[in-house]
Amino acid sequence: MIMIPFPKGLSRTPARRPPARRPVGRAADAPRDAPPATAASATPDRDPAATWLVVGLMSGTSMDGIDAALIETDGEMIAGRGPAITLPYDDTLRARLRAMLGRTDLGDDEGRRLGRDLALRHAQAVRTLLTGAAVTPDLVGFHGHTLWHDPPARLTVQAGDAALLARELGIPVVADLRQADVAAGGEGAPLAPVYHAALAAGLERPLAVLNVGGVANVTWIGADGPDDLLAFDTGPGNGPLDDWVARHTGESRDTDGRLALSGRVDEARLIRLMDHPYFGRAAPKSLDRGDFDAHIAGIVAGLSVADGAATLTAMAAAAVVQGAALLPRPPLRWLVTGGGRHNPALMDTLARWLDAPVAPVEAVGWDGDALEAQAFAFMAARCRRRLPITFPGTTGAPWPLVGGQVYQP
Ligand SMILES: Nc1ncnc2c1ncn2[C@@H]1O[C@H](COP(=O)(O)OP(=O)(O)OP(=O)(O)O)[C@@H](O)[C@H]1O
Ligand SMILES: CC(=O)N[C@H]1[C@@H]2OC[C@@H](O2)[C@@H](O)[C@@H]1O[C@H](C)C(=O)O
Q: How far is the CA of 191 from the centre of ligand 2 (A)?
């Protein structure tokens, strides 16, 4: 096993300090003159104290497939966690998705076809999830697939025809979960923190929940109750590494970190990789999957496939270390979710570079492959109850905002 020292030329402190953190509040904490949260069109249709069975659906930036998970929740507490599956994309649909990245207008034929085919594939994921489970969900939370994310332009685009999904399943579907936040000037991402906070009730804090997907994001959960949150995307996660490996080997990922572990981190290039204005920005902040592509391509070109994998793995870890410097207080531990936790090269590097224990979320009984899908189920329930899903501390929302639209079957 190689040891990757934290590069000497890299500062752990970002160029700019974060502003004083504002605690996250509930809807009731919104200023009196705040306009009503705009996105939720639904009103609760049953006793708010009752729980719902909700399916959550996530198609993540790594484009590996659709995660589906069932939970029981009232939108505040998690009464139960049920089965979860991943329905991988076939190569054709994945290639179509990839070809549409960056698109903001889906009104043409291929845009509509993609929305329809994504909805049908998500319906298939729900049916697969429920095979053998003698339950009918009350609600579905549907993220869709992000094609473009540009919060300063108040634009975030997720493909997937939610109305069609609702008709296919005969179940109300909550979608458009990022829209209200972005429209109000928030980052529109990350959204999972509200679920991380609900899951973490009862755990010792401060705690950091780190998701390493195509992009990586962290949720810091403070000791001052369930609303004490700070969240942001730390930087690229597995995305650039996946792309690098695909380009050089035709494989979709660096399985078990084998390439990275056989390579050597090019420290000089790592320092250049980390010389990006994103790391100096205050949190909350978020990324489009492609935001680092041009920056990275110019720096890693010419490396061997193994050294490139080692250097890009180190970059994902270094971005987390930079993010750690933005946290209000050091977390007692880091719980890692998302596919990156399966990569020992990344996990070992994080464990060496962070100043607190690092463990996969399974250490506290969560399922790191299902967690994002569960989060969208939880948000769907919150939408129905008009409870906020984003907060000043998680997306920079001006006040706690309800998010999502309900599509009836
Ligand atoms: N055994 C493994 N070894 C190395 N990497 C792995 C392994 N399993 C999964 N991964 C990585 O995890 C990625 C998938 O992670 P995940 O499903 O959390 O991403 P995502 O949800 O699509 O992304 P995001 O959270 O950005 O939306 C794969 O593309 C791969 O890079
Ligand atoms: C715009 C968008 O789709 N962002 C994703 C992406 O993937 C990880 C990270 O970047 C996170 O900010 C977000 O997804 C998770 C599910 C979230 O919103 O919490």
A: 7
